[in-house]
Structures are given as C-alpha cells and as structure tokens.
Amino acid sequence: MRRLNPLLVIGGLIIAFLVLVALFPTLFTSQDPARQDVAAQLEPPSAEHWLGRDQFGRDIYARLIYGTQVSMVIGVSSVLLGMAVGVPIGMIAGYFRGKTERVIMWIVDVKMAFPGLVLALLFVALFGQSTWNITLAIVIGIIPVFARLAHGPALAFREREFVKSSIVFGARAPWILYKHIWPNLRSEMVVIASMTAAVTIRIEAGLSFLGLGLPPPTATWGGMLRDGTTYLQTDPLFSLVPGLAIFVAALGFNLLGDGLRDALDPRTANS
Amino acid sequence: MTDVTESEIQERPQTPASDGCLSVRNLTTVFTTKRGTVAAVTDVNFDLRAGETLGIVGESGSGKSVTAMSILGLIPRPPGKVVSGEIRVDGKNLLALDRRSLRAASGSDVAMIFQDPMTSLNPVHRIGAQIAEGILAHQRRPSKADKEAARRRAVELLAAVGVPAPERRARQYPHELSGGMRQRVMIAMAMSCDPKVLIADEPTTALDATIQAQIMRLLREVQRRTNVGIMLITHDIGLVAQNVDRVMVMYAGRVVEMGTVEEVLGNPKHPYTVGLLRCTPSRLPADSVRRRLTPIHGLPPNPTDLPPGCSFAPRCELRGDRERCLLEQPELRPAPTDDHRSACHFLEEVTP
Question: Per the structure, how many domains does chain B have?
C-alpha cells in the first residue's frame, strides 16, 4: 500500500474546503454580506458577528465567506480556460515547427514580457468590471505560460517513434496531438494548473485591491483588504482576515500542485 | 544508367512482374541546410521481392535510413525533399499519390520497426490499444464492434509474435515489458495491417545478443507466414550474413555494391565492401592474416562537398594515383553477372 503524500493531503483538504465554502456559503453563515448598518460600523467581534463589522456595518465573516466564491470561480475558471487555449497552441507550435512555431512563439514571448497584473488592469479598465471580463483579463495573461510549457515537450515527443509509426499508419495531426502528445503532457499540465491557480487568485485579489475587481457591494477578498487598510491601526483584524484567506488559498493550490507532482511522477510516487 | 538498370532488372528471369513488391527507381532525396543543399540519397535503385530479405549496409550518414524514410513518406519537409524517382509498391507509385491516398496506402502496404523499442512505444497507452490503433487507423468511424474486433486482433497478433499471456500483456503499459518483449510488440504492430513491405531499421541494435537472435528468428518466421518483403537496415555484417538474401552496400548516399549475400560477402567487388569486411571480427584462427581487423583510413566525405568522381576515392586503397576515380562518377555495372553489381571503375581488380 502506497503511503499518502502529506502535501497532497493538506493541499487537497484546503482546496476541498474552499470549494465547499464557495459552493454552499449559507452552510457557513446566515448573515447577509451586503446588509449595511451604519450605526454599527467598525464594531468589534461579537457572538453574532464573529469577526466584527466593516466601515458600513457589514458582517466581515459573512463577506469573507461570500468572497471565497469570487476568488475560486475566477481563479479556477481562468486557469482552466488558459490551459484549454494555451496547451493546444503550444502543442501546435511544437508539432508543426516552421513558420507556425515562429509566429506563435514570438507572440508568446512578447506577451511574456508584459506583467500579468498590468495587462489585466488595462483590459478591465477598458472593458469594464464583470466576472467574465476579469476572468478573460487573467486568461490572456496565463495562456502564454501554458503555451510555453506545452511547446517544449511537444517538440520532443514529435520526434519519438510512436508518433512516426502513427504517421505511417495514416494518422493526421489532430489525432496525433490528441492521442499521442497530449496524454504525455497531461500530468505535468495538471500540476502546473494547480500552481497557476494560486497565481490567478492573487491576480484577482490584486485587481480587487486596486478597485478594478468586481464592483461593490460584491464581497471580494482583495476589496476587503483595501477597505481594511484605512483602519489598519485601529482595527487590524479587518484587513488581516482577507489577507490570510488569500494566503491560505494560494498555499492550498501550491501544496496541491506539489503533491500532485510527486504523486503523478512515477519516479517519486513510491518513495 | 537508368535505362541500363531497368532493362537489367526486367530481364531477370527469376523476377516475374507481380513478384517485385517494392521497387525503387532513381530515388534522390535532398535536405536544404544553411550550408547548401545536401543530397542524402542519390539515384538509388533496387527491388525487393515478396518473401525476400534485403540487407542495407553502410556507415552512419550513408543514406540507409533516409532511403527508408523516403519510402515511408517520413522525410520532414522542409528541410527534406524527395526530388526525383519512383517508389512503387505493388505497382502504385507512392511518390505520385496525394496525401490522402498515400496515407491509405502506406501503413497497409509498408510498415516499419524502429531501432529502440524502449522509446518507440507510447508510454501512456496500453500495449493492446497501441496495436489496435494501427488496425483502426483505416476505418473512418470505428464502431464498438470494430474496436472490439481490433482488440481481439491485437491479442492474436501478440500471440503470433510469441508474447506469452497475450491477454494480460495487452492490458499492460510499455514500461512493464522487457526490451525484447517490446520489440515483439513493435513487430506485432507493424504486421497488424498485413503489409507487403516491412522496413526494419536496426531492429536489434538496442537488444542483447541472445534476444537479437530471437527477434531475427521471429522476423524470419513472420516472413515465412506472410511472405512479406523485409528491408533490413543495419551496421552489423554478421546479422546480414545470417539473415539476408541480398545485400545493398551504401556509401555517401549511393549504392556502391549490390548482390546476393554469398556473392557480396564472399566475393566483394567494391573496395569499400572489402574495407567493411576487413573490420568485421571473424572466427578464423588467431594466426590467420584475415583475423586482424584493418580499419578504413579517413572519414566519409562531407555531404555538402562531395568529390566529383567516386565518393570513396579519397579513402580507396585500390585507386593508387589513377585520375579516373577522382573525375568520373562510377556507375553500378555487372560484376560480372547481373546478380552482383558494383560501382567501381576497376572492380575486376578488387580482391577480398
């Protein structure tokens, strides 16, 4: 019996918990995250409001719970989209070589020179702050990451004999990419996807912090962090809590990624 | 040269037209590099009959593999290109077919076994599925029944190449098999579409000696059963001596000598073949002169800068200081019969 990998277990539990919170926020709080009570602004923690209230008297704990939804949805869907577009692009570049490869990799290199957050800022500022636009802004930033990572192995696998013999048997490029090259990249890409989710969650929080995330009154971790900074001296819990949530989510995805890498790599799977 | 060669081959009494399952005529394949266009294979002609094994010998870069890749349509273009010639399998000229018909024809007509069975199977697919892929490749939308039939056929093929417990092996992954077993799987895959020609590019180089013998025996057995013509590409003269009907010796992209294995190895008529045989270990007594291994001096010519005359001339011991070898390209001619031809101006002077 194989021993369970502790990284995988811890990371998996953190992410499973966050997914649960995101899917069923009402299980964790009965408070409305948007209900204001100006009279009770910046109230310290109490039995009813576990983490106190913010500058509009909204329940911080409830906002934390509902903020999970935003982070997880945008973080995870942008990674999945980025992978779904980036990996095929990278594989095509690596498999076809020649002009196709030069053009694709040139665009990827140009894109890589841009910091992801700055590009996302520009995109959101231009097109508006909806869930879809924010996701798209982040996706554009991470497509090149997946394209670059899929490109190298595709380059190596195209020279392998099983690809040649598939060609001799009459297989076409889409079949070869899907049946022979993609399965060889799959486990590596899953690991990268998990690690990248930690990055996309931070980018989303960054956008919200800068006021370019989902507009208020939607609860976002980044937005809460920004609101809290004003009261850092008087009410440190206000900004500490969302900061911690971002940290835990990013840590969870990183641990999960590390754990998956060890579990999926045949060389370390049994050690 | 072309006309002579073709008429010679057609006149061969033992070669009825239907028997020549693969015929290659004037094949020239070039690669475009930064330092100019390189002819990897120049004007190669040969025939492979059904049920026959043709050995192709030569050192690295002599054009053996490029010849095979040209037949299989695997020359990467760019930079490579088959610039002229004809490759006929059962009368169909593979070079004249469009892509789609080529794909339909190759695979079912020409199959290939690669050198290293460790890297030639896809590590993420089960053995049975990999064999079935070749069988299903020719069906547009395989049904469930087709897939099941292909799976059963894969198991049969595994049994036929001597893989024990084929049902179980079919469900295993390549890393669970030894090198010899994997090469058997490769042979099963290659034979899955009943090819007429099987190209084996150094099929035993990566295997140890006892397994080599098993694999060669298996190839002979498969050949007896299916009457497939085998093109065996190798560096190993010993392998050629034991397993081949006819031999083609290549040097710098050209065929320099061709004939039955007894003739070419027993009575070589090209100085290069003589040189090759001199550096092959033999079982003669220790004090015998032939026992000594004598290397061929020098290196193969730079393919971007081939000498105008005989490519082997700069290394040839027979040449002496004859101008003709440096100026005039020698062509294959009977030495002295059609069954044994050599491309040497002075083949009459060649002694083993």
Answer: 2
CB contact under 8 A, A162 and B130: yes
pLDDT band at A19 (very low <50, low <70, confident <90, very high): very high
Calculate helix-pair angle for A6-23, A60-96, nearest 10 degrees: 120
B136 with B99, same domain: the answer is: no
Residues B172 and A213: their CA atoms lie apart, in Å, by 50
Give which of A168, A172, A181, A182 to mutate to test B binding, by max B Cβ within 10 Å. A168
Q: Please answer whether residues B112 and B198 qualify as being in contact, where contact means their C-beta atoms are separated by less than 8 angstroms.
A: yes
In chain B, what residues touch A98 (CB-CB under 8 Å)? 78
* Domain positions in chain A: 6-22+59-264
The residue in chain B having the minimum alpha-carbon distance to the alpha carbon of residue A182 is B124
Contact B120 A165 (CB under 8 A): yes
Q: How far apart are CA A63 and CA A38, in angstroms?
A: 16
- The string of pLDDT tens digits covering residues A98-132 is 899 999 999 999 988 888 788 888 898 899 888 99
Residues of chain A with Cβ-Cβ distance to B73 below 8 Å are 167-168
- Top CATH class of A6-22+59-264 equals mainly alpha
Q: HSE of B281 in the Cβ direction (CA atoms, 13 Å)?
A: 4
Dump pLDDT digits (tens) for A167-196: 887 788 898 999 899 999 998 999 999 999
Nearest to A162 among B78, B104, B121 (CB): B121
- Do B200 and B297 belong to one domain? yes
| Disruptive mutation site among A157, A158, A162 for chain B (greatest number of B CBs within 10 Å) | A162
Shortest CA distance from B100: residue in chain A: A170
Q: Which residues contact B84 (CB under 8 A, 6 or more apart)?
A: B26, B27, B28
Query: ipTM strictly over 0.95?
Result: no
The burial class, CB within 10 Å (0-12 / 13-18 / 19+), for A44 is exposed
Gap from B10 CA to chain A (nearest CA, Å): 30
Nearest residue on chain B to A157, alpha-carbon basis: B122
Chain A CB within 8 Å of residue B229 CB? no
% of chain B surpassing 90 pLDDT: 16
- Sorted by sequence, the CB contacts under 8 Å of residue A36 that are 6+ apart come out as A56, A57, A58
Residue B24 domain boundaries: 2-109+195-349
Residue B285 confidence (pLDDT) above 90: no
pLDDT at B331 > cutoff 90 = no
Q: Which of B106, B119, B122 sits opposite A170 (nearest CB)?
A: B106
B256 and B223 housed in the same domain: yes
Q: Which one-letter DSSP state was computed for residue A161? A: H
Percent of chain A at pLDDT > 90 equals 50
Residue B18 pLDDT > 50: no
In angstroms, the CA B68 to CA B345 distance is 28
Q: Which of B145, B175, B194 is the last residue before a domain boundary?
A: B194
Report phi then psi at B84, rounded to 5. -155, 165
